[in-house]
Amino acid sequence: MQNEDESRATSYTTLATGPDFRHELEIRRSRFITVLRRSADEESARELVASLRREFHDAGHHCSAFVIGPDRMIQRSSDDGEPSGTAGIPMLEALIKRETEPGVTDLSDISAVVVRYFGGILLGAGGLVRAYSESVSTALERAPLVHRKRLRLCDLGVPHADAGRLENDLRSSGFVMAETEYQAHQAVLRLALPDDVPAIEEAQSRVAALTAGSSTLEPRGTEWIDVPRQA
Known about the structure:
Layout: E1 11-15, E2 21-27, E3 30-38, H1 42-55, E4 61-68, E5 74-78, H2 88-96, E6 110-117, H3 124-142, E7 145-158, H4 160-172, E8 176-177, E9 181-182, E10 187-194, H5 197-210, E11 218-227
Antiparallel strand pairs: 1-7, 2-3, 3-6, 4-5, 4-6, 7-10, 7-11, 8-10, 9-10
């Protein structure tokens, strides 16, 4: 059922679409400005760093971290001149260890940059680690997050006369329906199902019951969609 190019993960959590999210902390007179961006690739993540270097050109540091991909295979960080290991890695850990639900750490497709203006008081290595980690963690607590799920699109060919009834029955059963295509000899209903075997088998059984076994689902490609997080 799964193509070689598809990820093992069928869902993850990411930043909601929209403008970059910003949050600022002051720690012992130093300003830590955290900017989060939804980033589907490294180019977007690196562009965030470049744009903030231009905007905050007089800041001492523009430290960064990002996690990309449903399986979170791409992970990068930069201390940008801070003592080694005191900025980028704590920021990255704040991203990858963030619990989006109790016991679930699946945050991805997100980049974080912390711009620091030095306030004249040395924080020490331990203080920097805590400051950069807290800056990202606090921003994530306030940022709008969404679940992103991979759905399997399946086609169901039925007679024109049955299309409306079957579509209503499937919706009433809790299935997500995409567009219906009316062809010359049949109507093609399209279902968007969770991309896992039990969900597809359940849908096949329901379709068989509704059509007395005369129609079956034909799995097509997949599509990633954002769904609201439950409160």
